[in-house]
Amino acid sequence: MRVLANIIGTVMNLTVIVTIGLLTTGIWPVKADTTGVMPEYEVLNTNAYLMDTVIEGPYDKYDLQCLVENMYFEARNDGYAGMYATTMVVMNRVSDPRYPDTVCGVVHQGPVKESWKTKQDPDLPEEDREYNPIRHLCQFSWYCDGKSDNPADETGWAQAQYVAGAIIYSDKYRGITEGATHYHATYVKPRWARDRGMNHIGRIGAHIFYRWD
Is residue 149 part of a domain? Predict the structure, then answer.
């Protein structure tokens, strides 16, 4: 009996200690909802999130979307420094009068051809015609390489969203590339890298950066 009494006493003491701890820390189990009414919820979709994002300043939600896509496909395996650097090339081009003055304009820059679906109708208004980028001739290769543009790496996509938000919202790390307007992967040697006025800036991650002066 004495042993049983000791066990019961120990359990009661533990119960009191746990209760006091929950009360003092503000943690207490919430009562179950027995109303039978389902709570409102929304399944979060990354693209929908970007489209619902309100951006103050010179950029809009489409700029953010283009920035995220370009960063994801160009440098998602290159760490944060590489992601910032490649993205700043886009932003530097936006500020350069030699390039389009919008983020999406820079990312999607390249020759296009009209879709056969609209080309066969000579009476179709110009605003209703469809144009597609010519494969392998875009400024950023992923945009016209013929591969799927649906992100499969959730972690890389989330990192791209974070970096794009930091650049769009808080204007961080603008000088990381010293005004670079071009870059290429370390395993290729493009002819344009030797063009006159193309100044070598340096290497960040898996890319080499240049500024076209």
Answer: yes
Q: What is the pLDDT of residues 21-46, one digit of tens each?
A: 444 444 444 344 444 444 443 444 44
| d(C-alpha 157, C-alpha 162), whole Å | 9
List Cα–Cα distances, 145 to 139, 149, 175, 210, in angstroms. 11, 10, 30, 23
pTM summary value = 0.68
Helix, strand, coil shares of the chain, percent, nearest 5, are 45, 10, 45
- Determine the structural domain holding residue 168 and report its residue range: 47-212
Contact 139, 109 (CB under 8 A): yes
Please say whether the beta carbons of 80 and 163 come within 8 A. yes
Our measurement of the distance from residue 38's CA atom to the centroid of its chain's CA atoms, rounded to an integer in Å, reads 33
Convert the pLDDT of each residue in 105-130 to its tens digit. Answer: 999 998 888 888 888 888 888 888 88
Is there a domain that residue 207 lies in? yes
CA distance 91 to 103: 7
pLDDT in tens, 51-105: 444 444 577 889 999 999 999 999 999 988 999 999 999 999 999 999 999 999 9
In a domain, 28, yes or no: no
